[in-house]
Amino acid sequence: MEIDFVRSRFIKHFDGQTGNIYAAPGRINLIGEHTDYNGGFVFPGAIDKGIMCEIRPNGSNTVMAYAIDLKDRVEFKIDDPQGPRASWARYIYGIIQEMKKLGVDVKGFNIAFAGDVPLGAGMSSSAAMESCFAYALNDLFGDNKVSKWDMVLAGQATEHNYCGVNCGIMDQFASIFGKEGKLMRLDCRSREFEYYPFEPKGYRLVLIDSVVKHELASSAYNDRRKSCENVVETLRKKYTDRDIETLRDIDWDMLNSVKADISEEDMKRATYVLGEKDRVLAVCDALNKGDYGTVGQKMYETHDGLSKDYEVSCEELDFLVDMARKNGVTGSRIMGGGFGGCTINLVKEELYDKFINDATSAYKEKFGKQPKVYDIVISDGARKIC
């Protein structure tokens, strides 16, 4: 995202004045899928695509906001109990209300923003917006007294309370805490996290967007979550002396001991979750050693588990991962909840061009759709630009 682009639009729409410029990134998740609600670990990183805004206090109680990409302008009072109706403006309104709860004395301001996070590709454009706005308001009106974790939770609360999305914390966490060249292992239960080096020299990280989203996603998500809860309930009855909150708290011996007491489907779901817990820890060790071959192997294993045991893949995504295997790609898997979206691929430089050409042409021939390709670099989190 170009600073000059955002500034030129801000000047045009707000009387030739300038303000401060802030940015916050979208995110990828290298491994750790469907683990958040099972009390496990995720492994996100901030990316070099995100949201940028220019903002300036205007001495009133009114927010004047311009969405550059949408060419849409909205005005609303900070203390309006209803807030704006435009869905994009709800993110600004929600962050204002949540930051006020944290003691930030938000006054009226002018804001223009734009983004280069692809919408619907699973890179969390909404979390980038929330993080960008929260960071800006904390800097302008709060003297930076609000902690990074409170900004993360303000973003999550904005989704919950003003946008109708019951999300977790991974997206906002990655957008706020991201560091260039670092991935983060986040414990979804305790919120403890650790940075791990991710500077794969000789490799490129690329997303291939299947440009499909099947309707099964929401109901399937609920079904799988219920499967995990079923297994936990069965284990609680058997192991009354153990504190079992989620599948995070069990091991393979415990799972196998109740195999006869649970459905085949529930067993498959739990098998994936326990396997993913092991894979995340294996990737931690591999990253510390700079062993990207093992990282890639675990990515493939995750995809196989998501496809066969958790059954949240689809023909299009399996096809893209198969094309990665055929082209010698180091690692590939579905990224996100499933039934569409992107694959994330760790590709050696010398194989990159052939892989992209083969995968995109074969995909278009088979499915009649042109997939989108996004090169990704791991970058810094929310920040003030100037």
Automatic annotation (TrEMBL):
Pfam families found in the cross-reference section: GalKase_gal_bdg, GHMP_kinases_C, GHMP_kinases_N
GO BP: any one term: galactose metabolic process
Listed GO MF terms: ATP binding; galactokinase activity; metal ion binding
Domain GHMP kinase N-terminal: 91-179
Domain of life: Bacteria
Acetylation in keyword set: no
InterPro entries per UniProt: Galactokinase (IPR000705), Galactokinase_CS (IPR019741), GalKase_N (IPR019539), GHMP_kinase_C_dom (IPR013750), GHMP_kinase_C_sf (IPR036554), GHMP_kinase_N_dom (IPR006204), GHMP_knse_ATP-bd_CS (IPR006203), Mevalonate/galactokinase (IPR006206)
Domain Galactokinase N-terminal: 9-57
E.C. number: 2.7.1.6
GO cellular component terms, A-Z: cytosol
Domain GHMP kinase C-terminal: 286-351
Keywords noted in UniProt: ATP-binding, Carbohydrate metabolism, Cytoplasm, Galactose metabolism, Kinase, Magnesium, Metal-binding, Nucleotide-binding, Transferase
PANTHER family to which the protein is assigned, alphabetical: GALACTOKINASE-RELATED, MEVALONATE KINASE/GALACTOKINASE
Protein name (database record): Galactokinase
Species this chain originates from: Marseilla massiliensis
